[in-house]
């Protein structure tokens, strides 16, 4: 909530904040849409010890405002690490779920 002074009176105006809204954007403990990615690296100048990245999930159907900044908006988002296992000298495999996050508002 943000407090604004209007005509010397203090009014509380509701403002949707990141902290409040991201509570609705949580890990999906019942993910169903599994994908496996295999990466082949050719002509590398040397070997790789490990290969890591992350998957970025966003709730594009919902925008919130930052408290105190009426023109600054964003979408709830999360980054989840994606680790690859070495399966051959030049091949790595990683597993991920496209439905790893859920929006509890059903959007």
Description:
- The chain is built from one helix and ten strands.
- The protein is mainly beta and 107 residues long.
- It has a four-stranded antiparallel sheet with strand order 4-9-8-5, with no helix packed on it. A two-stranded antiparallel ribbon has the order 1-2.
- It starts with a strand and ends with a strand.
- The relative contact order is 0.30.
- The model is unreliable at 1-7 and 11-15 (pLDDT under 50).
Q: What pattern of helices and strands is seen along the backbone?
A: EEHEEEEEEEE
Percent of residues in β-strands: over 45%
Q: Biggest sheet: strands, sense, closure?
A: 4 strands, antiparallel
How many separate structural domains? 1
Placed side by side, the strands forming the largest sheet appear as 4-9-8-5
Distance between the termini: 23 Å
Going by helix content, strand content and strand pairing, the class is mainly beta
Summarize the structure in short.
The protein is mostly beta strands and 107 residues long.
Secondary-structure blueprint:
Elements: E1 2-6, E2 9-13, H1 18-21, E3 25-27, E4 34-40, E5 51-58, E6 64-66, E7 69-74, E8 77-88, E9 91-97, E10 101-103
Antiparallel strand pairs: 1-2, 3-10, 4-9, 5-8, 6-7, 8-9
Key words describing this protein structure:
mainly beta, four-stranded antiparallel β-sheet, two-stranded antiparallel ribbon, 10 strands, elongated, disordered N terminus
């Amino acid at each position: 909530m943000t407090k604004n002074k209007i005509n010397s009176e203090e009014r509380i105006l509701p403002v949707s904040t990141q902290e409040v809204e991201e509570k609705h954007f949580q890990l999906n403990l019942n993910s169903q849409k599994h994908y496996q990615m295999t990466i082949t690296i050719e002509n590398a100048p040397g070997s790789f010890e490990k290969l890591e990245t992350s998957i970025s999930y966003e709730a594009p159907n919902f925008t919130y405002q930052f408290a105190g900044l009426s023109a600054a908006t964003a979408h709830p988002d999360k980054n989840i690490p994606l680790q690859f296992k070495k399966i051959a000298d030049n091949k790595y495999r990683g597993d991920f779920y496209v439905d790893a996050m859920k929006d509890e508002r059903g959007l």
